[in-house]
Amino acid sequence: MTAGNKLTGGTALVNDVKFVGGAKASKTATVALTATSTHAAGDMLSWANPEGTPILITDATIYVTTGVGTITADIGVAANGTTASDTVFDAVSLGTAQNGLTQSMAIAGGTNGGTNTYMAAGEYITGDASLATTGLVASIFITYVVL
Fold first, then answer.
1. What residue ranges of the chain have pLDDT lower than 70?
2. 131 close to 39: Cβ distance less than 8 angstroms
3. What number of other Cβ atoms are within 10 A of residue 42's Cβ?
4. Which H or E element spans position 106?
5. Closest listed residue to residue 99, CA positions, set 64, 72, 125
6. pLDDT over 70 for what percent of the chain?
7. Residue 39: predicted pLDDT
């Protein structure tokens, strides 16, 4: 292997990209959803791609500790932190019926959401709820691979 690259067991580090068992290693970001009295795009969630290069969102999971009423939310990749999108979750429930439950984009992504969502450098994942989210306590776990 060339300088800067190394192989340890089944893990290879090539040009600072970690491969485990032949595949790129994933990363997970944990982001709290913001409880807010408004429901404009980006109010509940505005997470910028932290890598400075494109990433592939392989999964996103929402854990609701305290839901609010019957609200739903659209969450997805957008060009900026204030544009609505539903490419990750389309009308996912954040209501009280979800208390203590997790929802994965692979299962609860809805009509437009789903796995393996491309995110360019400089883009955001935004969240827009159907109603105010005052009292909401929830987090999203965004799993991705650097491309």
1. 1-23, 107
2. yes
3. 21
4. helix 105-108
5. 64
6. 82
7. 84
Note whether residue 16 is domain-resident. no
Q: Go through 90-110 and write b for each residue having 16 or more CB atoms within 10 A of its CB, e for each that does not.
A: bbbbbbeebeeeebebeebbb
In a domain, 35, yes or no: yes
Count of structural domains within the chain: 1
**Domain span at residue 39?**
26-146
**pTM of the predicted structure, to 2 decimals:** 0.81
5 occurs within a structural domain: no
**What is the CA angle 27-113-105, rounded to 5?**
45
Distances in Å between the Cα of 33 and the Cα atoms of 128, 140, 143, 146 are 10, 7, 16, 23
